[in-house]
Amino acid sequence: MASVCAPLQGRRPQVPRMVFVRAPQRAHGASPTQGQHVPPAARAQVIDTTFSVAEGPAGLRAALDRIAAEAEAGVAAGYSFLVLR
Question: Rounded to the nearest 10 degrees, how much is the dihedral formed by the CA atoms of 58, 59, 61, 65?
Fold first, then answer.
């Protein structure tokens, strides 16, 4: 019987890298680079991933469509990192 993982043997799957950053909490809206120039390669877009549970599956679908659209727009705008929050 063939292994379930056989298609991946010998090559690494292409997946996005996740970066976890430990940082102290800051006041709402404060940025560690506020007032400083941030090179384009270090820019990150924060995407809100919340949705109203009261809207049910339709609300989840709408939120996923919005999140996908914001992520695509961020990549097209040149953001290097997308932070899903």
Answer: 140
